[in-house]
């Protein structure tokens, strides 16, 4: 029996499919950004990279949670 993926990571397959880049690339972009606040990063992904709000929020939330 396999467990379903929950939380922000549940968006990753659709993000990769829709935007044509692996999640690791998106996370690298977030990590290398001079921005540090969650909503600043979400807005940046939306405006500079054309990502939808839910997808941007998932990438940022998951990436920032790694540092905790």
From TrEMBL:
UniProt protein name: DUF4287 domain-containing protein
Protein species of origin: Amycolatopsis xylanica
């Amino acid at each position: 029996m396999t467990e379903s993926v929950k939380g922000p990571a549940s968006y990753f397959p659709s993000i990769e499919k829709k935007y044509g880049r692996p999640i690791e690339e998106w996370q690298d972009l977030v990590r290398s950004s001079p921005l540090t606040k969650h909503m600043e990063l979400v807005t940046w992904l939306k405006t500079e990279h054309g990502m939808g709000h839910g997808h941007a929020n998932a990438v940022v939330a998951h990436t920032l949670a790694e540092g905790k």
